[in-house]
Each structure stands twice: as C-alpha cells, then as structure tokens.
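pasting for ref
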Amino acid sequence: MDRKLILRRSGLACAATLLAAYGAAGWAVNDEPLKDKWAPSEWGPNDKAGSANRRSAASVLKAMKLVKKGKVATLGKVYQQDAPGFGSRGWRMTIPGLPTGGPFGKQEMVYNDEYLATEIGQIGTQFDGPGHIGVITSKGMFFYNGRYLEDKDVGTYGLGPLGVEHVGQLGFVCRGVLLDAVALRGKQLPIPQKAGDPGIVTDKDVQQMVKRQGIAPISEGDCVFLYTGHGDIWHPSKWDSYNAEEKQKRIAQFNAGEPGFGISACEYFATRKIALTGADTWATEAVPGETDQPFECHIKMMTKRGIWNLENLDLSQLVADKAYEFLFVWSPLKMKGATGSPGNPIAIY
C-alpha cells in the first residue's frame, strides 16, 4: 500500500509503529541529520522560527534605505481553480448561497462568504514552513531543529512546534535581491536534464549575476529571489486569456520540471546566512538538480538550517524595472500548526 495512503488512513499516531517496521517495509533511512548534528539550530533547541530570527532593528533600517522611488510591486500570483498545482494539489473556492446570508434590517443588507478547499499552505504563491520538509531517520521523521512527526505535540490537526505561525510571529523585513538569470543566459532557462545544464543556477552564476547587476554582495539576512522565465508559462496578466486546452498544455509544461538554484548555490547562500530564497517557479531549486537527491536544497536549507522558501512569485515588474535591490516585506499567515502559508509579498523600491 502507498505510504501516503497509509498515513492518511491511519493518522500520524500510527507513525511510531510504522517506523519500527521500516526494515520490513523496505523503507530506507537517512541518518545524516543525526550524524552531522543538524539540531539544535544556531538559535538554540527551543527555536521554532529559523532564519526569520535574522531580522533586527538595524537590518530593517538598513533595508528601508533601498526605497528610492516609492514604487511598489506585489509579488503574489492569483489564486484560482485552473492555475497550476503540484501533484494533486488544487484550489477549490465557492461562494455558497449567492448571497450567503441576509437580508438584515430595513436596508435589506446581504453578504457573501467563500468556502475554500485547498492545501492552503502549499498552493500557488506559497511559503514553505518548518513542518513541510523532513527526512526519515532511524529515530523517526526528522524535521527542523530536531523535531519529529512522532512527537506527542505533533498531529494531523496541527504540527505544534513545527507550525508556520511561529515564523509568522516574526515575519520578514529585509533587503530583497533579484537575480535575473534570463539576462545572464540570454533567454528563458530550460528545464535541466543533467548536472551542468544551463537550467541549473550555480554558486558561480549567483556571484556573476550580482557583479553584472552592479549590486552589493549577498549578505546576512538578505532575501534572495531568482527570475528564470519559467514562471511566465503561468503569467498572471495573460492566464485568463487562454482557453482550457491552452491552459492544460501550459500546466503540463510548467509542472514537467523547472530551472532553478542548484545545491552549490544553496550551500553558498547558507554560508552567507541569508533569510529566505524565492523564485518564479514551484520549487525555487532546479528539478532535476545537480545530484540524484530530489529537492536537495529543500532538505539542506529548510530541514537542516531553517532557511525558508517562497515559491511561484510574480517577479515581472521587478525585472521590467531592473529593481535588483528593494525593501522586501511579508509574513506568513498565523495558521496554527500549518505546513506553510499563502500570501502576497511586497517589494518597495
């Protein structure tokens, strides 16, 4: 039986029993988080917010100095039912009733509500929180800062100390850095097929873009965003002009894989102690990547270091304005125990 189906039917309360049977079930374990001591994090054993802790009064004031023209770009894409989603994820919103309620009083007031069925933290423009990515170890399913899905305060109705609300309590106010990989390559980046392909953005590519764009080196607390052009397959200003057949074609193309950061770039960001990565793609990192491990940046940045990630951003206005540095402001919603968050980040420059 499929592992996801087992967990869905049995609940995470059964996970401890399943872990004991790893060998019999043929599930491999990866004890790298234990051997290399991924926990506690640099912020201590009780931390639940990771890289959001890099924000300080001094860093906020410094980032505010990047506002020169008073221009604002919203970076979120539109949430709608026919937009691309990873795997079986979807956005299903209805307005029940039309109107939902009323009338009230002499003025005959009515109102509308919406009902939403979705993976609300992992659809569209999305923030990956502490409870999103983990690793199966011999001690259990390991997540950020040494917490496990088998812990008594983690369950199917909320992830407890791994919930996104702990990051939301701090939020992000930082120097935003846009890396224009389309300008670097001279065209939209392709989906990579193997290591060394131009769809994989390496540490050297990152440094070259910083130099070409004439901006200061990436530094501690920065929020770094990658424009690959792949997100233009799902361009927010054009999507509703396509017919159903064209949308399905583009959804398949968008989800087939993606250009993005390779592990060397992510390791470079880790040494620079950045606060956040993001991109115009659904994973930010290249898929396939530089190694045989899928989503290695997810594991090494979030699970290991607590450096979080924003996906499916609309970077088109920043690219058009060549706004390579800006004040970035955003916070995930305080949804108790959630794996991530939707949102509409803001760039001010």
